[in-house]
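Colleagues,

For the teaching module next term, I've prepared a clean inverse folding example: a structure given as tokens, and then the sequence designed for it. I'd like students to try predicting residues themselves before seeing the answer, so please don't circulate the second half yet.
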């Protein structure tokens, strides 16, 4: 008799985006003439940078020639050209990572979930409330206990280091989805010290690091900018938002060589070795063509072109922030993040309905990311300029 992994029975119904989709569909069917501006899902709208497309076309041509054709990749960690390019990128903001500490992935979602495989069921996992839902779901699927670190209006939606609670694994995300809040170096140092004291591991989701404004040197782009983080953290990175790779799929995960974990008897194991073993058995790499496209992101021209797209989105974020500033509505994000997280002064779902039915703008109810999100609402800056301006006009009319 085949037995189910009971973790799957403990998952909550994943109803957030399904429910949003259903409500939009029903509204559209009942009101066919009314166009909806979608500012809910955090997907990009600009195309890939020309330099990325060129690199992928060149790589596709190589795949059609006997001498340059590529099959399985030997290392299973990604081609060295891309690992070296990613290490060079780290270096550009002052962080020293060796190429063989970098694992090329098909994106941050897979690795932030898959990483739980190598940590036993008896780990207590701490997740901020609110949080990107993957952290909770993948921990529950792996039968781990989940506890929460509150991120609230009072803390600026940054999770606060707990005083008397012990966690073994900690998910942190900065700049944060959904709240847009970014850790200062001091705040992140607090978490690193907590992890070191508790021999815990931080899984640090840096999917939005590229949105940190160049003039904000006190908001680290990487947890490895913090002293001691190499002994307690894994960093998960993505080109999805950095370079418009949501449909192209490529990211990288950084596991420092000195990072350790333990068995019940206290025997020490090397995390990089075990993660490498796990990847060797369960992952066969990212396509060569995509890895060449990703390499181009880190080239000087790639950096220039992809930063132009980020600047476009951040101008949307500025327009949105300005609107909420003028309306005197509290919000976080918008500065180092493509998300605006604002106080809607009513249950989040009620506001969702109001904004949709009165103004035909779709966003994301904050409560979908955790109980502390109720009364808050997320809008993304990934829309077009025209839609952003129009949506803000409608928000002004409503609020
Ligand atoms: C915090 C966070 N991590 C990871 C991801 C997923 O990234 P990827 O497309 O690289 O899987 C997202 C996507 O929205 C995200 O918001």
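(Answer key — instructors only)
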């Amino acid at each position: 008799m085949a037995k189910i992994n009971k973790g799957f029975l403990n998952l909550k119904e994943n109803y957030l985006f399904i429910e949003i989709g259903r409500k939009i569909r029903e509204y559209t069917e009942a009101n066919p003439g009314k166009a909806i501006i979608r500012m809910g899902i955090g997907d990009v709208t600009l195309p890939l940078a020309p330099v990325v497309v060129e690199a992928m076309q060149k790589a596709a041509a190589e795949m059609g020639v006997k001498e340059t054709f590529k099959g399985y990749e030997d290392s299973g960690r990604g081609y060295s050209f891309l690992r070296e390019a990613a290490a060079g990128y780290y270096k550009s903001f002052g962080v020293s990572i060796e190429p063989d500490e970098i694992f090329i992935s098909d994106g941050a979602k897979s690795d932030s979930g898959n990483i739980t495989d190598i940590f036993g069921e008896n780990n207590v996992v701490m997740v901020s409330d609110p949080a990107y839902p993957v952290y909770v779901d993948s921990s529950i699927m792996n039968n781990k206990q989940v506890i929460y670190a509150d991120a609230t209006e009072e803390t600026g939606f940054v999770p606060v280091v707990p005083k008397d609670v012990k966690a073994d694994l900690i998910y942190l995300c900065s700049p944060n989805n959904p709240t847009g809040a970014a850790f200062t170096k001091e705040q992140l140092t607090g978490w690193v010290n907590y992890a070191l004291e508790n021999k815990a591991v931080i899984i640090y989701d840096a999917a939005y690091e590229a949105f940190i404004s160049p003039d904000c040197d006190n908001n680290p782009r990487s947890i490895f900018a913090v002293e001691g983080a190499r002994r307690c953290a894994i960093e998960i990175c993505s080109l999805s938002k950095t370079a418009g790779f949501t449909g192209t799929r490529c990211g990288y995960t950084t596991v420092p060589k000195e990072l350790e974990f333990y068995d019940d008897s206290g025997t020490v194991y090397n995390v990089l070795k075990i993660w490498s073993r796990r990847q060797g058995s369960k992952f066969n790499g990212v396509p060569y063509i995509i890895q060449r496209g990703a390499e181009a992101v880190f080239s000087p021209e790639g950096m220039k072109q992809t930063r132009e797209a980020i600047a476009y989105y951040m101008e949307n974020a500025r327009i949105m922030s300005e609107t909420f500033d003028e309306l005197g509505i509290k919000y976080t994000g918008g500065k180092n993040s493509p998300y605006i997280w604002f106080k809607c002064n009513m249950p989040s779902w009620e506001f969702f309905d109001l904004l949709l039915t009165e103004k035909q703008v779709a966003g994301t109810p904050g409560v979908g990311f955790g109980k502390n999100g109720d009364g808050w609402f997320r809008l993304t800056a990934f829309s077009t300029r025209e839609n952003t301006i129009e949506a803000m006009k409608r928000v002004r009319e409503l609020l």
